[in-house]
Amino acid sequence: MKKLFYILFAALLTASCATIAPEITRESQYPRMYEERPLSLLVMPPINNTSFVEAKDLLYTSISKPLAEAGYYVISPFLAMDILRAESAYDAELFVAASLTPFKNYFGADAVVFSEINSWTKRGFGIDTNIRYFIRSTTSGEIIFDRSCDLYLDLSVDSGQSGLFAALVELAASAIVTASTEHITAARKANVYIFSDLPRGRYSPDYDRDRGFAASARDIKTTVK
Question: Does residue 210 sit within a domain?
Fold first, then answer.
């Protein structure tokens, strides 16, 4: 009887353990980031797959800050832009799968940050964005970080009041806010979510100590105010 009990207990224990998925860590999700340890990053102009022409420049100006806050040395985007234009290298599409050795030799970059804007539209009282970021090593050419964010920036106004009049006021206020809010806000919000999981760089106190930090999903969908 005892033997049967132990067998059943062992079977239940094995079954319960099998259903518990192992925690995904930053190291298991982005192992090449820890193997290659990039220090300096070059941000390429975004690849704009939308009809909103201004999205490319708006996003480009907002990428460097979260990367620097994550502990990386980011080559000045303004300096890089002038050089890239002079060298006819402004279109990032040309280098997505090409050798990045020239960027290593010319800029001293350890990795290149690419971005793709797949959606950027106004919807209701807000802005819909879908942006993908991927980082390629200039040494191995491998993609060492890849993440996307489907973000809706909700710009609706809640007055805290009830009734028909309050609803009309909120409707008018939301329309004004949506029309006047810069699209750059949506880009900044998306950047925060995408790079929140980026393994910390050498200038961060968490450098090489965040290997065991829990990692979020590679593809995020969220609504923010």
Answer: no
